[in-house]
Amino acid sequence: MIRRAIKRAATILAVALAMHSPGVAAQQARSFYVLNQRSIALTAEYWNPILTHVSRKSGVPLELKLARTAKEGNAIAELN
Length: 80
Known about the structure:
By secondary structure, the protein is mainly alpha-helical. The protein has one domain (2-79). Helices cover 60% and strands 10% of the residues. The protein has a two-stranded parallel sheet. Strand 1, helix 2 and strand 2 (62-65) form a beta-alpha-beta unit. It is globular and about 30 Å long.
Protein backbone atom coordinates (compact mmCIF):
# COMPACT_ATOMS: atom_id res chain seq x y z
CA MET A 1 0.00 0.00 0.00
CA ILE A 2 2.82 2.41 0.86
CA ARG A 3 4.70 1.48 -2.32
CA ARG A 4 1.60 2.21 -4.38
CA ALA A 5 1.23 5.61 -2.71
CA ILE A 6 4.90 6.39 -3.36
CA LYS A 7 4.58 5.37 -7.01
CA ARG A 8 1.43 7.47 -7.37
CA ALA A 9 3.14 10.51 -5.81
CA ALA A 10 6.21 9.96 -7.99
CA THR A 11 4.07 9.78 -11.12
CA ILE A 12 2.27 13.00 -10.18
CA LEU A 13 5.65 14.66 -9.59
CA ALA A 14 6.90 13.38 -12.95
CA VAL A 15 3.89 14.76 -14.80
CA ALA A 16 4.16 18.12 -13.05
CA LEU A 17 7.88 18.29 -13.76
CA ALA A 18 7.41 17.37 -17.41
CA MET A 19 4.68 19.99 -17.84
CA HIS A 20 6.72 22.65 -16.07
CA SER A 21 9.97 21.91 -17.92
CA PRO A 22 9.27 20.92 -21.52
CA GLY A 23 12.43 20.18 -23.47
CA VAL A 24 14.61 19.90 -20.37
CA ALA A 25 15.57 16.31 -21.15
CA ALA A 26 18.49 17.48 -23.30
CA GLN A 27 19.80 19.67 -20.47
CA GLN A 28 21.77 18.87 -17.34
CA ALA A 29 20.29 16.89 -14.49
CA ARG A 30 18.09 18.84 -12.11
CA SER A 31 19.19 18.77 -8.49
CA PHE A 32 16.74 17.40 -5.94
CA TYR A 33 17.56 18.32 -2.35
CA VAL A 34 16.25 16.35 0.59
CA LEU A 35 16.64 17.24 4.25
CA ASN A 36 17.91 13.93 5.52
CA GLN A 37 16.48 12.77 8.81
CA ARG A 38 18.46 9.53 8.68
CA SER A 39 21.97 8.68 7.62
CA ILE A 40 23.04 9.72 4.14
CA ALA A 41 23.12 6.08 3.04
CA LEU A 42 19.56 5.33 4.22
CA THR A 43 18.21 8.57 2.76
CA ALA A 44 19.83 7.82 -0.60
CA GLU A 45 18.59 4.23 -0.49
CA TYR A 46 15.03 5.54 -0.04
CA TRP A 47 15.06 8.47 -2.49
CA ASN A 48 17.20 7.21 -5.41
CA PRO A 49 14.61 4.68 -6.66
CA ILE A 50 11.90 7.35 -6.49
CA LEU A 51 14.00 9.84 -8.45
CA THR A 52 14.93 7.17 -10.99
CA HIS A 53 11.24 6.38 -11.51
CA VAL A 54 10.33 10.07 -11.84
CA SER A 55 13.22 10.66 -14.25
CA ARG A 56 12.10 7.76 -16.44
CA LYS A 57 8.48 8.90 -16.45
CA SER A 58 9.16 12.58 -17.08
CA GLY A 59 12.27 12.40 -19.24
CA VAL A 60 13.89 14.96 -16.95
CA PRO A 61 17.09 13.72 -15.30
CA LEU A 62 17.06 14.23 -11.53
CA GLU A 63 20.05 14.02 -9.22
CA LEU A 64 19.79 13.56 -5.45
CA LYS A 65 21.77 16.06 -3.41
CA LEU A 66 22.31 15.53 0.30
CA ALA A 67 24.08 17.65 2.88
CA ARG A 68 26.48 16.03 5.31
CA THR A 69 24.93 17.66 8.36
CA ALA A 70 21.53 19.00 9.36
CA LYS A 71 23.01 22.51 9.61
CA GLU A 72 24.25 22.34 6.00
CA GLY A 73 20.91 20.94 4.87
CA ASN A 74 19.01 23.76 6.52
CA ALA A 75 21.29 26.32 4.89
CA ILE A 76 20.63 24.79 1.44
CA ALA A 77 16.88 24.75 2.10
CA GLU A 78 16.91 28.42 3.07
CA LEU A 79 18.68 29.35 -0.18
CA ASN A 80 16.20 27.46 -2.36
